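User: Quick sanity check before I run a bigger batch. Here is a single chain. Can you write out its predicted 3D structure?
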Amino acid sequence: IEALGSRSPAPGGGSAAAIGSVELLRFSAEGSAPSRVVLSAAVIGALIGAISLTGSIIAWAKLDGVLDKRFTFKGQQYVNLLVFLAAVLAGAHLFLGLDVRVIIAFFVLALLFGVMMTLPIGGADMPVVISLFNAFTGLAVGFEGYVLGNPALIIAGIVVGAAGTLLTQLMAKAMNRPISNILFTPMTGGSGSGEAISGSMKE
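Assistant: Done. Predicted structure follows.
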């Protein structure tokens, strides 16, 4: 069930990212400069949606057993931070000009960060991460709804984003761990051999 639920944010996040990419490419092709508010919503929604898309796919792969390992390496957090900052800088560069090459680089970096962000997280923390991606999807849909001028998407995105954020906070509180600790210092898990269990088993 968890593997099935982990896939649910992917279509919404992918759709929001697709809407953002289409709108950015349309603005670039027309040579028209949208208002900064519309462009901000398009970039932020696309960034969040792309991260949610690839992150949800990796979460599903982990829970479904396709990826049965945690992928970590020395300095991984710093590499992830650099990728995220590069995506943000590429998005900021779009305010100077809607170059197609920058748009492509922006989406590649955002999709890559979604993968790298989720790879080191263990299965015990995955429900919280899935809930966070669900919140991301709602926010992304809300931003892109503003870009399209669609009130239904805005309202639905706000509701899903707020519910997902609240659920994420409650789940993290129940685990007695802050969300930042789950995302950036995931649990390492056991050594595989397990510990001896003392006591007698009752029938």
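The helical segments are 2-6, 9-30, 36-63, 76-93, 100-118, 126-148, 151-174, 179-184.

User: Great, the batch can go ahead then.
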